[in-house]
């Protein structure tokens, strides 16, 4: 059974005669949280606009829910999608409650459905106490949360979020991250584009796609990408000069952190042999030896290192 939510085939967008924004992109989004990662200007927003139908591809194909996104089922498909752009615009004199009622009316929902849905969504995004406040008086975080609420008004199966946590303070970011994890538990598929990589780690994304200069560099689950890269992240203590010297030749990005050494390695077996040999010969007690897969930020940087024709650009 094919459970793919979004699949693109040679998706390309050229602006004017020569600006290549998206270049033969082939992504595969399955249920859960999909992190669409890349530096600013990588082609993420252009891709999302093609997915929601506001931009037409120069060439290539998009399938959503197994159907051609620009075919005869276009309207049916887009009724099942919610979208929040990077900088959403609102009727600023409206209250949050009135905005959701307006969106419900656009979807031809009954008044009973609207009332029920508005109430539950305001609770979900923690805006019940601000429902009668004009959106003009909302904080940046509140505006993002009401944006998510309006995107959920039609109870979509797929939610597409573009840089949803940009310009938020840490508290606002954590609130959005928690909300996205809750939506996954409800069975929603969330595609979120961002250049702030640690946030995708906090969201516990099921899979990621890494894009730069309009091209897909790498895609898969964190486990799959770690297996493909073959690199391990090691935390080792104590931070002893003899230990440092023993593992230095096997270590990548070796750095000190308090009383431990943190590094990446492509030869974990040789690291372990060197450490156990040193421990026995020098009677050095190893307090900690933790080997794990790379985190998303490290996977991203490794992917770009393996593709030197790409510039890393502006990534946090």
Please describe what this structure looks like.
This protein is an alpha/beta fold and 316 residues long. Helix content is 35%, strand content 26%. It has 11 helices and 15 strands. The chain has helices at residues 44-51, 74-78, 96-106, 111-124, 140-151, 170-185, 197-202, 222-229, 241-247, 268-282, 296-305; strands at 6-15, 19-25, 28-29, 33-37, 59-64, 67-68, 81-84, 158-162, 189-194, 207-212, 215-220, 232-237, 252-257, 260-265, 288-293. The strands form 3 sheets. Strands 7-8-9-4-10-11 form a 6-stranded mixed β-sheet, with helices on both faces. Strand 1 (6-15) and strand 2 form a beta hairpin. Helix 3 packs across helix 4 (111-124), helix 5 packs parallel to helix 6 (170-185) and helix 9 (241-247) packs antiparallel against helix 10. The radius of gyration is 23 Å and the shape is globular. The chain starts with 5 loop residues before the first strand and ends in an 11-residue tail after the last helix. Mean pLDDT is 89; it is low at 308-316.
Short description:
This protein is of the alpha/beta class. It has 11 helices and 15 strands.
Average pLDDT, all residues? 89
Going across the biggest sheet, name each strand in turn: 7-8-9-4-10-11
* Overall SS class: alpha/beta
N-to-C CA distance: 37 Å
Strand content: 25-35%
Shape summary = globular
Counting H and I runs of at least 4 residues, what is the number of helices? Answer: 11
Radius of gyration over C-alpha positions, nearest whole angstrom: 23 Å
What is the helix fraction of residues, given as a range?
Answer: 25-40%
Number of β-strand runs: 15
Main sheet summary: 6 strands, mixed
Order of helices and strands: EEEEHEEHEHHHEHEHEEHEHEEHEH
Low-confidence stretches are 308-316
């Amino acid at each position: 059974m094919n459970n793919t939510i979004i699949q693109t085939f040679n998706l390309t967008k050229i602006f004017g005669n020569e600006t290549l924004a998206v270049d033969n992109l082939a992504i595969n989004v399955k249920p859960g949280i999909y992190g669409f990662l890349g530096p600013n200007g990588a082609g993420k927003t252009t891709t999302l606009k093609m997915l929601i139908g506001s931009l037409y591809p120069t060439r290539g194909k998009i399938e959503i829910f197994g159907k051609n996104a620009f075919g005869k089922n276009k309207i049916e498909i887009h009724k099942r999608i919610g979208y929040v752009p990077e900088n959403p615009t609102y009727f600023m004199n409206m209250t949050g409650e009135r905005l959701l009622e307006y969106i419900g009316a656009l979807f031809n929902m009954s008044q009973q459905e609207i009332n029920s849905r508005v109430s539950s969504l305001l609770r979900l995004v923690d805006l019940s106490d601000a429902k009668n406040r004009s959106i003009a008086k909302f904080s940046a975080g509140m505006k993002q949360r009401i944006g998510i609420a309006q995107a959920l008004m039609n109870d979509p199966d797929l939610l597409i979020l573009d840089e949803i946590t940009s310009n938020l303070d840490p508290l606002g970011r954590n609130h959005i991250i928690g909300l996205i994890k809750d939506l996954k538990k409800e069975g929603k598929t969330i595609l979120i584009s961002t250049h702030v990589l640690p946030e995708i780690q906090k969201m516990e994304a099921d899979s990621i796609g890494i894009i730069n200069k309009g091209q897909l560099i790498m895609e898969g689950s964190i486990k799959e990408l770690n297996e493909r890269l073959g690199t391990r992240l090691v935390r080792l203590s104590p931070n002893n000069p003899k230990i440092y010297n023993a593992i230095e030749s096997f270590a990548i990005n070796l750095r000190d952190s308090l009383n431990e050494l943190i590094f990446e390695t492509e030869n974990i077996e040789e690291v372990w042999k060197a450490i156990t040999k040193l421990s026995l010969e020098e009677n050095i007690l190893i307090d900690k030896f933790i080997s794990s897969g790379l985190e998303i930020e490290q996977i991203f940087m490794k992917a770009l290192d393996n593709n030197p024709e790409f510039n890393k650009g502006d990534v946090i």
